[in-house]
Amino acid sequence: MRWLVGWAADHASGTGGVPRPGQTIMPVGAQQVWDGPDPLWAVGDWRPDEVRVVEADGGNRLAVLGCCGASDDQLRVALSAARGGALRHLTVWPGSYTAVVRVGRRVTVTTDLAGARPVFHTPWAGGTAYATAALPLADLIEAQLDVGHLAALLACPDAPEALGEGTPYEGVRRVRPGHALVMRDGRSRETVSYEPAVPTVVAAPPVDADAAVAGIRDALVEAVRTRLAAPRHAPVPDFDTLDPGPVPGMGPAQRRAGRPARGPAPGIGADLSGGSASATIALLAAGLPGVPGTVFGTPGTSAGERLLAVTFNDLTLDPFSGREAELERARCIAENPRLHHVVVAAGEEALPYAGPDGGPLADGPLTDEPGPSLVVAERHRRRLAAGSADHLTGHGAREVLDAHPARLADLLLDRRRRHLLRPVTALARAEGASGRSVLVPLTVYRAARRLARTPYREGVLEAARRLRERDVAGPLAAAGPADGSGPGAGSAGRDVHGAGVLDASLAALAWCRPGPAARWLTGEALAEVSIRLEQAALRPVPGETGARPGERRARAALARLAADHRILEQAAEVRSQRLHAPFLDNQVVRACRALPEALRVQPGARASVLRAVLAGAGVRDLPPGWGAPSHATRAAAVRTGLRSRIGDLIDLFDAPLLADAGLVEARVVRRALRAAAEGEALPLDGLAELVSTEVWLRRLLARRGSCWTGTAAPRQRAVAGGVPQRPSL
Predict the structure, then answer these.
(1) Can you tell me the distance from the alpha carbon of 385 to that of 574, in angstroms, rounded to the nearest whole number?
(2) What is the pTM of this model?
(3) Taking each helix axis from N to C terminus, what angle separates 684-702 and 666-677, rounded to the nearest 10 degrees?
(4) Distance from C-alpha of 79 to C-alpha of 89, rounded to nearest angstrom
(5) Alpha carbon distances (Å) from 496 to 200, 505, 634, 638, 683
(6) How far apart are CA 579 and CA 390, in angstroms?
(7) In 3D, which of 577, 479, 558 has the Cα closest to residue 176?
(8) Fewest C-beta in 10 Å: which of 120, 234, 347, 615?
(9) Exposed/middle/buried for 346, CB within 10 Å: 0-12, 13-18, 19+?
C-alpha cells in the first residue's frame, strides 16, 4: 500500500507550540520528497522512477508520483503554467499519477478524472494535512467513525448527492474527481475543477465517430506504451529479510504471512480473461515496438514471447455457464506467438467470500475504505500472484465506453429520437418472446422522456422521498448492467442481481436512486440518508445542476468503479507488483467521453470500438464471439461462493457491528443471506456491500499501531466511535 502525505502550513500566524510534521511527528516508513514549511512524504514501497521532482526559480516545485509519461521538460513547462493557475496542464500526460505543486505559499494537489487517484484533506495543527489515503489523516486527527457516511454508502453508493465530499472518518474530506485541492497559507482551502466548462443550454457540437475512435486508439496506445517504456522491475526474492513498507494495522510478521511462495514474474504482463477489454490491452502491449515486457529466461518462456498473459479458470463453474466460451476465446488470442499464456486454475478456495488462504473473510488486510471488492479480493490475488511485476488489466472499459441507460434521455434532449430505435429493440429482444416485449419500446421511451423532463432538483427529492417511505424494494433498488454495460452492451436474460435487463434499465432512468443494499437498512438509516439528499437538492454544487442526466449518471458510475478498483488494489496487493488500469487514465477517459452518444448507445458498441482500436493498431484476426458479455459467469461464481460460505457469513452477522451502529437488523440480514444461498432472486451486489462493510469494520477494530510516529504522534489511532458496544480502540 502506497500513499503520499503532506502539510500546508499557516505561514502568517505560525504554529507556535503546535507540533509540526517533520519535527516531532513523522509518517511511519516515509521518504521525504521535499522539506521546508510545507513538507511532502511518499509512504510505502515506491519505486525510484515513480517519484519525480522538478524545481524552478524561487523554490517552486512540482512532484509527480505514479506512472507518468511526461518528460522532464514537459514537467517544467507544466510547473510554469501552474504558477499562473493553468492546472489542466498537470493532468494531460499519459499514465496514472498524482501531481503536487508548491508555488510560493500555495500548494495544489490534483485528482484524476475517474477517481482512482483520490485526494483527502483535513484541518490540523494550524494548517491543512492532505494525503492520497484517508486512514493516515484519520489517525492524525484521531477521527471517529462517520456512521452517516457508511449509511449513505450502503443506501446510495452511486449518488454523489448522498456521499458528498465525506469519508468514513469524521473530519476527513475527499476531493471530487476532476478537481484539484488548492491550499493558500494552509488555512484557505478550495477545490477547483481543471476541466473546461461544457455548455448545457445547447447541445455540444457533433463529433465525427471515426475521429473519436481514432482518439481512443491513440490514447490507449500511449497509455500502454508509457507502461512499456518505464524501467523494468523484478520482484525481490528474499521475502523474509526485506519489508515493502508500512501497511496500516499490520506488523512485519503479519505482512510476511500469507505471501505467495514466489513473487510475480519480472517484466510486464496482462490479464487475458476472454473479454474484449483485457484482450485489447494484452494485444496492444504485445504488439507495440520496444523492449519486450516478458524477460526471456523467465521459467517457461520461449524466444519471441513478449508478454505474460494470465487467464483465470474457475473450476467450480458449470461447463454450460458460458465460461468455456470465454476460455476458448482466451486460448485463441493466446495463440499469438508474442504471448506467453498462463492459466491459473482454482476451486472453492478462490470463490467469492473466501478469506486469505481459505480462512475467515475478516482476517484480510485493512483497506483505506470499505468496498464490494473485499469479498472477491482472494480470488483476484491468486490471479495476480501469477502475473508480472507490472500487470495490465481492462478494468473500467465498460464504464468509460458503454452507454448508461440515462443517456437515452440525453438523446431526447438533443431531439435524436431515431437513435433510440436500436437500443430499445435490443431490450425488447432480451425480454424474449413474451407479451411484455411488445410494450418495451413504448415503456422505455416514456421513461426516457420522463427523465428528460424532470429537473435535477425534483429527481433528487424523489429519491429522498422513496428512502423516507422505504420504497426501495422494487425495481428502483435493483442494480444491474445498467450501471455499467448500458442498453447497448448486448446483455440478455437476467442480470447478476436477479432483475431483468429491462427492469434494471428502467430503474437506471433516474437522476438518483437507492442502491441494492437499501432494502436491508433500518428506517433510521434511510431517513438520515434522505435528509442528506434533500440538503443536496436545496444546495446543489455549482455547475452540476445544469448537467445532463446521462452524463452525470455515467460519471457517478465511473467514480464508483474507480473507488472500488482502488480498494481492490489494496486488498489483493501482491508484493513488488503494480496493477495498471489504462482505461482509467485521464487521457483515455477524455478520449472516451468524446465518443458520440448516438454511437455509444448502439448494441455492441464497446466491442465494435475496441475492434476498431485493434484494427488501427494492425490486429484484425479476432476469435468468434468477440465482445460477448460475461455477466452470467460472474453471477454463478458469486452465488456459488455465497452458498459455500453461508455458515461463516451467518456467524459474521450473529452480532454485527453494523447492527451496533443502527444501520441494519442482524436477523434481517441473516434471513436474506439464507434466502440468496437457496437461490432466491435477490440483489447479490447489495449483500456483497453489506458483507464487505461489516468485514471492513471488524478489520478496523482489530488493527494495531498507527500511521504516525514521533514524540508528538497521536496517542491513539482512528477510533470507531459510532460502534459503541465494542471495546475502545
Answers:
(1) 6
(2) 0.91
(3) 130
(4) 8
(5) 35, 13, 7, 9, 8
(6) 6
(7) 558
(8) 347
(9) middle
